[in-house]
Structures are given as structure tokens and as C-alpha cells.
Amino acid sequence: MKRALVKKLHKASLLATAGAFAASGLVLALPAQGAPVAPGWSETKQLTRDTWYVGAGEFKPFHESRSVTVSVDKTTNLRGRQPVTVSWTGAAPSGGRAANPYGENGIAQERPVLIMQCRGIDDPTLPLAKQLRPETCWTSTDFQRSMTNKDESEAIWTRDPAATDAEKTQTSGLTPYPDTSVCPTAGGVNPADPTASTGSSYNHLTPFVSKAGTVFPACDAQHMPPEAAVGAAFPPAEVAAFTDAAGQGSVKFEVRSDVENESLGCNYKVACSIVVIPIMGTSCTLPTGVSPGQQDPADTACASGGHYPIGSASDGTAGDLAVSPLLWWTPSNWANRFSIPITFGLPPDTCDVLDPRPPTGFYGSELLAQASLQWAPAYCLNKHRFKYQHNQMPDAAGFQLMQNGGAPAAEVSSLHDAGAGDPVAYAPTAITGFGIGYIIDKPENKGEYENLRLTPRLLAKLLTQSYLGSAYGRGHPGMGANPVSMNVDPEFTALNPHLSLTEQEAAATVLSLSESSDVIEQLTDYIGHDPKAMAFISGKPDEWGMVVNPRYRDLDLPTPEWPLLDNYIPETTDSCRQANPAVYFTQLAAPVTRLLTIAQALIDAWPNVQTKCDTDVSTTPPTYKPGRVNRQSYGSRFMLGVISLGDAARYGIRTAALQTKPGTFVEPTLSSLGKAVQLMKQGKPLEPFTLDQGDARTSGSAYPGTMVVYTAARTQHLDPADADKVAEFIHISTTEGQQPGSGNGELPDGFLPISKNGVTAKLYDASQVAATAIQAQFVPATPTPTPTATPTSNPTQDPGDTTLPGSEPSAAPTVPAATSTGPAPITDDVPAPMAATAAVTSPMGNWLLPVLLGVGILGGLVASATRVALAVRR
Amino acid sequence: MSTVLEKPGRRQAGRAPSGERAQKQPREKRPPRPQRAPRPKRPYTQGEETLAVFSSAFTMITIVCLWMAAQLLFLGNLSQDRAQGLLYTELRTQLASLTAPTGPIVPVGDPVAVISAPKIGLQQVVVEGTASGDLLAGPGHRRDTPLPGQEGISLVYGRGTSYGAPFGDVTRLVKGDHIEVVMAQGRITFTVLDVRRTNDPIPPPPAAGEARLTLVTAEGAGWLGKYVSAGSAVYVDAEAKKAFPAPAGRPGAVPESEKAMANDKGALPLLALALGCLVALTLGVIAARQRWSTALVWVIASPLAVALAWATTDVVMRLLPNLI
Q1: Could you say which of B59, B154, B231 has the minimum Cβ distance to residue A843?
Q2: To the nearest whole angstrom, how far is the Cα of B270 from the nearest Cα of chain A?
Q3: Which residues of B touch A807 (CB under 8 A)?
Q4: Is A791's pLDDT higher than 80?
Q5: Is B24 domain-assigned?
Q6: CATH code, B130
């Protein structure tokens, strides 16, 4: 069933207009050459509104019709929080534009395009539970779906020609209608006094039916699903988007899976849809029995066409109700809907749920996370394959775990020191990289900035905490004259003109990793190859007099772990900060442990700046609450973070173009990644390829953040079963795993496919060689001496070399007789606890004293004899 | 070194170097000195000269070898005995004042436990560290194992023939004999499992909460092995059903020089210094003899010579396997 659906969507995608792709903000989402077209969706529909006007002293019908085309770029295998781009043409131009169109903030606009996520498919032949209805559409507040306690003049839904008789009454929408014990303000019957008047208010409820079947009346905030609580974990996704004067528009709509929104309950089994309603206005019946001018206020309100001019911004007053997105559920508006069926990919825990086999863990780089998400089900759902599990941890830690035998393989992005351990082979597994993700709004609500360009020196300034952040940073010794934030730095404004010049703390930092990572290693290597950036770090002021934070002067680059060196605690009169003194620049930087956390902060435009300090004066003494600043408001967002290209593509986060040669800026695209792969060189067979940032600088077109993720495993002493699994993984991931797509086992966006031909061929070859070496577990020609070999066979002058198996204390903890767990990797310890005592001998110990005594006595005799002989001769 | 100088017995020891060049009449009667009365009647002939040098050389070899053997077998006993006495007092004080070490890190050379096996008349203070030099003072506790009596396998190394041969008799222990250990955390009695030699099976590790004490020493083969030869390591395993908790944080390994039958090459510079001192003393004696009377030189030089010889031998011991 799902397969068929995907096929159908695939067909539809061929019809998709090119506009759907052009509108996509994702550079990496663009299909690669020869790759299948991304599964999109498009439909054109005739939308209508029937209302009336007064002409020649009587009411005359007014029919408005528009041909609207809606396109969506991705509809299959979506993941929670993944944005899809919805674009449209031919819609009614909007008015009263809101700065933030999401959730309740968008309801004051006129004729926007409302986009919601709803459970079910728009197919009347399906059982009701699987059908799309207004009751299954998600809104994050009750007043986006219900009209309660309205005056008759506002009850324009009762004038809808398609409204049933029940819907024309004072209380409608839910049968039986809730009484006042449930919904006190919705005009219901008072159960204590059923005959009392229910008042003159008009009410319409659009209840929400959760996945579990619970009906939430949605008459007030208390009767909404838990995910709609005030300050819910995720910001609203439904959006009332703006259409320009030409009738076009596009917006990124974030889909939610049942992980984010359980009540909505969309997942790979529960079909859902995106519902797009270009609001034209509620249709109205012609007033009857009255002459023009005498009609009801509700009739007048219903026929309204809005008071905001086309393209205007909101002045704070609400738009006319008849053309607002509030009445999306009226029969006439609902009939104008586009329903785009979407499917969700398998959730991250699929393998844990569906496959009881023990997983084989691959440990390391988070760069591979999005690929692993799609790859894992291709292993665990196939009984002939092992159960692949990717556990994210710092590259170095994963490598060490692999070396110690704690994991069959590690996922790393650079050469790690194997030390004296077993030799390790590196198999290229995926080509991706890091990016400087950003979310920056152009001033005056002109939309998002899309062409951020950064130089290594700007990154150095951000990372070295050389921007002041706010007045608190101004007292920092040695750099008080620096710009407060990057957006007012002349170097930045020259590259990125026309952005807001309002200083803000979040623009003084780039959210980065606190842990050691190959990503930071490469990022700092990139900075380290730029003479200007290094001159800045070594203390030379830039052309505008900005100097490096003295604590970071002469920092050694590259480094796998960015240090937090500042120790400046500002002096302040703020009692909260006095009570919670903290290093201000560390609060600004506040690095996190995972790249995904950074990506999520960027999706939410919620900087991880920890400088907020709230004082609750209602208690004595006052309570202080330091913490993270608020989400940035729509229209003035400015935030940067180091993210993986996989996350950037998945979550639609823009990534900055980085400077290579002076004046040349390279965005992460499949071709710039390929250019970088072209520059990569392999030191020795089985070793990783390295990208010399100096080469990337001279090339000018290679993206400096390109990184290859390697599967690293030992080529000796690896359990044969594990070796087979690692080799299998390398074979599968470099062939079937390199097919671009969003399905199980396919390569997601943000990765450059490795293929047998072209620039990536050398990586493919290297991976096959490494797979063979790992599977073979060959013993190299030069035998490495193992410590246990010496004692019995070769008693040497230095018996200190000998070990004492079994009696060795180091052997005692590692060889517990009873609790031997699983197939322990082969180590140099004695395998069996009952081993024989090894010989520890010393020839010197045997012969020292006898020889001393013998030589002594002999010598004495000889000496005496010669003495006697001498005496005799004389 | 100062302890060495206080030792009684240096009188006898002082005798040894006297044989060669002392012209003065010694008090003792031992060396059958050739008649001194006829002073050199005529110069040595070429053959006699060679013979005299030959004789002197062999005398020196004899002195060096016998002094060494004597220090290993007898003189070392004295210094070991004295060191044990001091260590015993020190540990006793520490036990009484509850300052005795419990690990995991104990300064090398400090006393950590008293080990006694009444059957073989063993009573020794165990010091921390198993390098050859540490074992001159008594049995040594290997530093990467728990202290004797603590949970786990603790190794105690002891010399088998030299320097008091504290573990010379441990191979006489048989299954069921008791070994008693007193350490900071209390008193504990081990029961001997067996004596273990090369190729004997290693007993399984002790269960959690039990203590294992393995005494390690060296023994030789044949009739020589009874007294003077000690070339292969031998183990005595003993077990106690209850154990004291072992603090975490022990080092994971010990230097090569602290393993069984290892020597401590770190003593080489010290040996060079000691030999240099001996050369300096010789030159000093030659110089002194041209100014002072023979009696005076004798009185001054002989204690110095004995002390230096003693100290040098102690350094040489560090270059020899630690268990002999």
C-alpha cells in the first residue's frame, strides 16, 4: 500500500513544475546529475468565493474565482521537524502582513495562505478514522479553530451558503454540544439550570480529535491537546503565509511526526496530509427580505473584502474576519483546500522496536547521523544482514573504543593515532562535511537572508570571543573598542550588506561543539591556513582596529577541541548577576555536545546564549534564575552555528559560503564537495584521505568544509564475525547506500554519493581495499613480537622482560573465571584462567654465587701458590 | 650508607684488603705473611716481577669475589637485619597511631605489613616496591597489586638466598600452613594453597571478597640450590576467605625493574660514582703514604675502604636479579 503510494507520488513528481525546485532554498536538495527527481507534488485548482454586492439598489451575487497552483518539494519519507517548501501561484494577494506568520501570530492577516498539518487522507472512500477532516487538523491554540462567545455581527459562518441548519444556530461544531461545566465560556447549557437562557453569543467549535481518539472540544486553552500548551516544546508549525501582489508565495513548512506531536500522531503507519487553504474569504448567502443597508451586521461583515491594502504590513489591528485565516473551517473555505498526502520515514527507534537481535554498534562521527538514520532500517529489517547501529560520540572516543576492542568499528573523519595497538584500516563511507548554519532575517521583514558569506577571519573573531556581545563585555581588558557583534563589524557588512545593524548578543558568537571533534579540527585548520586570520589571532589588529581577545592570542591551530579560555566576569549593578557571577564570554559561547543540538537551536532561532538572568522579587530574598535567552523573534533573527551538512539539508538550514581565495566564496554544493574530493590525497594505503586546506585555498572552488567519514576497523585481532559485519557494512554502504534518496538504505541530501566512476572513484577503490583487509584480518609479513612469547623460549640476560601470566596482577581483573562475558576480543592476556605458571628464570641468579665462590677460592689458591713460588725463588 | 658504617663486623671485613700492601705488623695472625725481616735484598728479576704482579692480580680477584659472596651471604644479613628492626619499629608506631598505609599509593620503601609464617620461622616487615634495591631491606610488595590482606591478588617478592634470604624457606610451606599478615586494616590469616613452580597450573582467581597472597622468590636446583643458587622463580599461593577492602586507584602497571627476576639498570650511574670513589680512595692512600706513617694511613683508610666496598656492593646488588 505504501509502496503503491510512493509510486503514485513519483509519477506526480514528474509533473511537478520546475518552480517547486527553484523555490527550494536548499542548495543541497537540488537533485544531482543523473539522480532521480526528488518526489514532489503539485496541483492546480479553481478556487471560488460567492458573496454579494449592492448594485442598483439591490443585492447582486458576486462570484470570484482564481486558478491556484500549489507545489510541495518533498512529500515522502519525511522526518519529524523536516521542513518542506510549499509554494503557490495565482492566490489572492494578502494584506496586513504579520511579522511572524506562525501560529496565533498569523491570524490577524487578510487572505493569507493557511498551511496546516492534518491526520488522514482526503479521500471520501476511506473510513472516517483515516479521513482528513478539520477535526484532525492541528492548530496550536484554541482560537485558531473555534469561535466562542462572539457577537452576532461576528457570526459570519452562519451566512455560509453551504452551512447546515445546525451550523446556523448559536452553538455548533460539536454534538452533543458541551455544557458550561465543560466549557464555561462557549455558550453551552448550564447543567444546573437547563432551562436558563444561554445568552445571545454565537459559538462554533472545531474540536480536535487526537490519534488515540480523544475529542478535545477546543473551546478554551484548557480543552486543547497537551502539545498545544502555552510554551510547548516546539514553536507552532502551522503558518498563515503571505501572498505577494502577483499571487505568488512560498514558505517552509515544518512537518511534525508523532515524536514531536503525539496527539496529531503522524508516523510511517499513520497517513497524514499537508492542507493548504489559500484564503479567499467565506462565501455568503444573499440577504433576503431586507433592502440594501438594512441587512444584518453579520451579512455586512461576511461580504467584507478586507480593509488592508494589498501588500501592506499589519498596523496592529485585526484583519476583517471574513477574509482572515480564522474561518478556515467554514464549508466554503474548507472546500478551497489543497490536500497533499505525505509519508513519514521510519522513526529513529525502528530497529530497536522491530528487530530483537543484538545490535552491532559503530561508534563515532555525528556527521554520518542523517545517513545512518536511513541506512539502519535497511539492515535491521533484512534478516540476511546484521543489525547496524550508529552510536554517536566524539571521533577520538569512538576510535579508542574500537581500538580497545569495545566496538567492531569506529566512524571517524581523520587519521587517528593507533599507537602501539593493532593496525587500523579506514574505509571511506560517506562524503559530507560541516557548514556554518545560519538564520538571518533581512530588516524590515523582507524575508530571510540567503547569501551569507564568511571569511576565516570572521570565524576566528567569533570563535575567539572577540566581539563584546553587549555592554557587559565592554569592560573586558584589552579589547574594549571591538565591535559589539559581528553584524556591525565593517568586515562583515562589506561582505553582507543591507543587514540589520542592531547589536545583539547572539550575533557575537557561533554556536559550536564543546567536545573534541574532527569537525572542529578541520574548521580550525581552515582558519589556520588563512594568513589574515592567523595575523588576527597573533594579535595584529584588523583594518578597522579590532583586536583578538587577549586570552586567545597566539592560540595553536588546528585543535580538535575549542578551548574556553576567557575568565572575565563583568562588574555590574544587576543584583541577579551579582548573585550569579559567571564568565560572560563563556555564557555567550555556551558550546554544546552535539551537532544536532546546534541544528535544532537554529531551526528554533533560539540561541544557546546563557546570559539571561531573571529576578523574582516576589520572594524574600529574591530568587534568581539565570539561563538561556528567549527565542529570537521572527523578523530579527540572527544566529550562527556549526552544523553537519546532513542536518542542514534535512532541516533546511542555510549554510554560509566560506572564503577560499580572497574574494572567492564557496557554498557547500555537490559540485564544490566533489572539487574538494578531487584535491584529497591518501597518504598510505588503508589510511584516510586528507584535504590540505592550502590546496583548497588555491583551488578556489573546493568547499573547505568537505569531510569524508571513514569506517575504521582493526585489521588484526578483530573477531571474525565482527570483521565480516564491518566488511559487509562497507560493501553495502558504498554501493546501495550511495543511491541518493529519502528511502530506507538510501543516501540523504547533504551527502555526495561515492561512485565507481568520477572524482569519488578513488574513495570507492580505497573502501573496497579496506573492506578486504578488514575481512581478511591478515597477519603482516613482519611478525610483531608478543610479550608472552619470550619467557620460556629465550631466557635472556634481562629477565625483567618476562611476564608472569596468571600471577600478573593485570591478568587477574581481566580474566574473571566465572564471569567471562561474550566472545572477548583476542588480547595478549592468557585466554584460560588455569594457565600454567610460566618460567621466570635468571642464569645469573643460578650461577652468581657459585661462580663468585669458585673464582674467589681458585684465585686465592693461585695467589697463594705464586706467593709461595716467589718466596722459594728468592 | 650511614647504617652500613655503623655495622659491627667491619673489623673482620677490614682484614681483607690488608693482605696486599700492609707493611705494618697486623695485630691479627691470619695471613701467613712472608718473613718481613729480610727487606728486599735485591730487585726482582723480570720473571719474579711478572710472578708478583700475577699474584697481586689474583689476590685482588679473590678479595673482590669473596667480599661480594660474603656480603651476599653474611654481611647483607646484618644490614637487612638492621633495616628490618627499624622498619618494624616504624610500622609498629604507625599501626598504633593508625597512620599505617592502606594504599593505593604508598611511597616506595615504606613498611606496609608484617608477614609471618611460624612454621618456617618467618617474620618480616614488607616494604613497598619490588625493585632489586627495595628488596635489600626485606620482602617487597608489588605496587600494582592490592596490599597483602586486601581484596584481590597481592604479590610479595622476597629474596631467596641473599641479604638475609627472608623467603629462603617459603618453599617448605605446604598446603594448609598458615601465613599471618598484620597491616593497617587489621590482622588476617592466609592458608597456603600450594607451592607453585614453572608449568604448575595457576590457581583460579579468588572470588570477590577474598584475598590471595602470592609469595614470590627464587630457588636453585641441585645441591648448590640449597644454599647459593637461585635461578628460577617459585610461587607460594595462600588464600584468605575474608579480605579488607582495597582502595581504588592503584597504578595499572609497574616499571620493568619491579617485575620478577628483574634488575634495576638505573643503578649504573651510582655504580660509576661508587667505583670512582674507590679509585679516588686508592689514589688518596698512595698520596698519603708518601707523607704519613703507614700506621696512620692504615687507620684512616681502612674504615673508608670497608664502607665504600660495602656501599658499592649494595649498588651492585641493584644490578642483579631482585629475587636471588
Answers
A1: B231
A2: 19
A3: 153, 155, 202, 214, 216, 235
A4: no
A5: no
A6: 2.40.260.10
Predicted pLDDT at A535: 93
Selecting from B55, B207, B218 the residue whose C-beta is nearest the C-beta of A845 gives B218
Residue A18 has pLDDT above 50, yes or no: no
Question: Which residue among B47, B72, B154 places its CB closest to the CB of A849?
Answer: B72
pLDDT of residue B28: 53
Question: Are the CB atoms for A140 and A228 separated by under 8 Å?
Answer: yes
Q: Do A800 and B58 touch (CB under 8 A)?
A: no
pLDDT score for A238 = 92
In angstroms, rounded to a whole number, what is the distance separating the alpha carbons of residues A713 and A718? 8
Cα A708 to Cα A690: distance, rounded to the nearest angstrom: 9
- Examine residue B57 and state whether it is found in any structural domain, yes or no: no
Burial of A329 (0-12, 13-18, 19+ CB in 10 A): buried
Please write the tens of the pLDDT for every residue from B159-173: 988 898 999 889 889
CB of A561 within 8 A of CB of A512?
no
The answer to whether A833 contacts B54, with C-beta atoms less than 8 Å apart, is: no
Taking Cα atoms as reference points, which of A112, A24, A32 lies closest to residue A750?
A32
Which residue in B51, B64, B260 is closest to A804 by CB distance? B260
The answer to whether A593 touches A627, Cβ cutoff 8 Å, is no
Residue B35 confidence (pLDDT): 58
Q: Which helix (H) or strand (E) holds A859?
A: helix A843-873
- Measure in Å the smallest separation between the Cα of A613 and chain B Cα atoms: 41
- A870 in reach of chain B (CB within 8 A): yes
> Closest Cα of chain B to A853: distance in Å?
6
Asked if residue B324 belongs to a domain, the reply is no
Contact A798 B235 (CB under 8 A): no
Q: Could you give the number of structural domains in chain B?
A: 1
Q: Is residue B250 part of a domain?
A: yes
- Report the chain B residue with the minimal C-alpha distance to residue A856: B62
Please list, in sequence order, all residues whose beta carbon lies within 8 angstroms of the beta carbon of residue A868, skipping any fewer than 6 positions away: none
A809/B321 Cβ within 8 A: no
pLDDT top residue among A467 and B209 = A467
Instruction: Please count the residue pairs, one from chain A and one from chain B, whose beta carbons lie less than 8 angstroms apart.
Output: 184
Give the H/E segment covering residue A437: strand A424-440
Residue of A nearest to B215 (CA): A807
Using CB atoms, pick whichever of B66, B205, B220 lies closest to residue A856: B66
* Structural domain for B196, as ranges: 76-258
The 10 Å Cβ neighbour count of residue B323 is 31
Name the most confidently modeled range: A17-31, A407-421, A785-799, B8-22: A407-421
Residue A32 pLDDT grade (very low, low, confident, very high; cuts 50, 70, 90): very low
Q: How confident is the model at residue A10 (pLDDT cuts 50, 70, 90)?
A: very low
CA atoms within 13 A on the CB side of A356: 0
- The pLDDT value given to residue B17: 47
Asked whether the beta carbons of residue B321 and residue A853 sit closer than 8 angstroms, the reply is no
Nearest chain B residue to A833 by CA distance is B204
pLDDT of residue A850: 86
The yes-or-no verdict on residue A741 having pLDDT over 70 is: yes
B304: pLDDT strictly greater than 90: yes
Give B31-74 pLDDT, tens digit per residue.
Answer: 555 555 555 556 778 888 888 888 889 998 999 999 999 998 89
**Residue range A472-488: mean pLDDT, rounded:** 90
Q: What is the DSSP track for B231-299?
A: -EEEEEEEEESS-BPPPS---S---GGGSTT---GGGHHHHHHHHHHHHHHHHHHHHHHTTS-HHHHHH
**Residues 831-850 in A contacting B (C-alpha not used; CB under 8 Å):** 833-850
Of A803, A850, A870, the CB nearest to B228: A850
Chain B: residue nearest A845 by CA? B231
Domains detected in chain A: 2-170+206-342 (no CATH), 350-431+681-776 (3.40.190.10), 434-670 (3.40.190.10)
ipTM of the complex model: 0.80
